[in-house]
Amino acid sequence: MSYTKLLYHVVFCTKYRKNTIPEVHEKELYAYIMGIINKKKSKLYRIGGTENHLHLLFDMHPTFALSDFMREIKEHSSKWLGKNPNFPDFGGWAVSFAAVTYNLGDKQTIIDYIKNQKEHHKTISFEDEYRQFLIDNGIEIDERYFLKD
Description:
Layout: E1 7-13, H1 26-39, E2 43-50, E3 53-59, H2 66-83, E4 98-102, H3 107-115, H4 117-120, H5 126-136
Antiparallel strand pairs: 1-3, 1-4, 2-3
Helix pairs in contact: 1-2
């Protein structure tokens, strides 16, 4: 038996960062993504975002690779969104995502950060937030590919 507790903070956006997640229906999407994560024997601690991006904080079951886990979340939710009349403008997720891990002691700080997304984005664009998120976590940015999808 393997024992793990890895908190993943993942940020991903809609294709070309278009505002296609109406605030009035976002909780439907959040619940759907929570269901995907639960079926994978993983635990979602917080989900939040704005009309063009999401933040997830979760503990992933150790049998999954992060890239496969995120691909499945995006694929399943994209199909669901495409059939859901409450998201008529949704055109897909961007291919890329950013992910970092935190220790258990940081969990509440990250939960609070995700809860505060709407307020946060009154003063900072997603592009600026995403760039700072990468820089703060020591992730090198290749400008040729930064937010191109």
